[in-house]
Amino acid sequence: MNSYDVAIIGSGPGGYVAAIRCAQLGMKTAIIEKYSVLGGTCLNVGCIPSKALLDSSHHYEDAVKHFEEHGIEIPGEVKVNLEKMIARKQLVVDQTTGGIDFLMKKNKIDVYQGVGSFKDATHLVIKGDKEEEIEAKHTIIATGSKPSTLPFINIDKERVITSTEALKLKEVPKHLIIIGGGVIGLELGQVYKRLGAEVSVVEYMDRIIPTMDAGLSKELNKVLKKAKFKMNVSHKVKSVERVGDEVIVKADDKKGNEVVFKGDYCLVSVGRRPYTDGLNAEAAGVVLNDRGQVEVNEHLQTSASNIYAIGDVIKGAMLAHKAEEEGVFVAETIAGQKPHIDYNLIPGVVYTWPEVAAVGQTEEALKEAGVAYKVGQFPMRALGRARASMDIDGFVKVLADKNTDEILGVHMIGARAADMIAEAVVAMEYRASAEDVSRMSHAHPTFTEAIKEAALAATGDRALHV
């Protein structure tokens, strides 16, 4: 029987990063993955493939709608080859997962293919082509999550689909009904809207991206409506029925009136659930809560002291970069170091166009907590760089403590927001004030000038270009 210092169940961003860090710290490490490729949801059917399709569809939309304005003339009709687009997406996925294989070999990490489960707290059974058993002093559970559904919905993976199937459709839907107005639904909705589908979003809450700052929700809603998305908020879905190639969705609006949606595809995007199926956690003394999450303490230790859990399988935002941070945190904890994670400073991003990004506290949270704060906001359309690239939608908002000027939250919607948010994270990690950021030189012309201008506005209505 092979023995290891650390075994990791799951090879998503949390698992494979944890494995690399454990190996870097001199621990003999194994990683167990049920599928034939490494990378988990993010690399195979999540972050990476969805961004590839978003990028391809963005190029198409630019060619159809914006090239002429830039003085670029294309003879003949611009057409979508969906099969080729999906193939390119798969090539990106294959290259990325292949990179993980390389990193495992480089760091001398043993990879086991099969379903890993606990025999007891220090022994794991792996059921793949053959059944084998390994011993591990420490184990990290990094089994991630799966798409959630509603109890009355039958996901047939043909017409009633999850994000997994939406990444490999054979045709552009005529009318895509999306149940859920969160990140995944809106991103995939934008892909197919650009390619010619009619898109209807049906959201239970009173706004889209409901966990983010209300200002971002309002602005994104405005932009998507301008793109002819049909938004239906405060709608409670009560039935989804497939009749041949048609899907019929019935919902009650906020007044209790029934609304019927008919389309050829329905994407169920109502969040994700922790995935612990087949783990046999109880055999190791690992406790799950009533939401199916693995219970952990502040050290990400489970009720079995030598077993840890990270990523989507524990509480908190289901984000790849959160899982990565937790993977490093646990590896360093096992090695006897004293790492830390500030969960308030884990940024969130929606990769629509314009992109939406945020870090820290929302206005709603500050109001609820009774924190005295001030706001600085700056519109993207006031930037020379935004006008040059025709990306004028959106704004940057800086929230700062009214008394100390420390930045408490930064919220932005606009071109390149996913990259720009890192500046806000750095500033807040060092507990910068709005004035600190406002006094930093930002290259001109860039989108990041909006951060400086919003910080100037927060320090006392001092924005220069509005």
Automatic annotation (TrEMBL):
Catalytic activity: N(6)-[(R)-dihydrolipoyl]-L-lysyl-[protein] + NAD(+) = N(6)-[(R)-lipoyl]-L-lysyl-[protein] + NADH + H(+)
Residues annotated as binding FAD: K51, G116, T143, G144, S145, D312, M318, L319, A320, H321
Cellular component terms per the entry's GO annotation: cytoplasm
Domain of life the protein comes from: Bacteria
Disulfide bridges in this chain: C42-C47
GO biological process: 2-oxoglutarate metabolic process
Active-site residues, as the UniProt record annotates them: H444 (proton acceptor)
Miscellaneous note of the record: The active site is a redox-active disulfide bond.
Cofactors named for this entry: FAD
Parts forming coiled coils: none
Protein's UniProt keywords contain Magnesium: no
Protein name, per record: Dihydrolipoyl dehydrogenase
Chain ranges passing through the membrane: none
Domain FAD/NAD(P)-binding: 4-327
Enzyme nomenclature, EC number: 1.8.1.4
Organism from which the protein derives: Mangrovimonas yunxiaonensis
Family named by the database record: Belongs to the class-I pyridine nucleotide-disulfide oxidoreductase family.
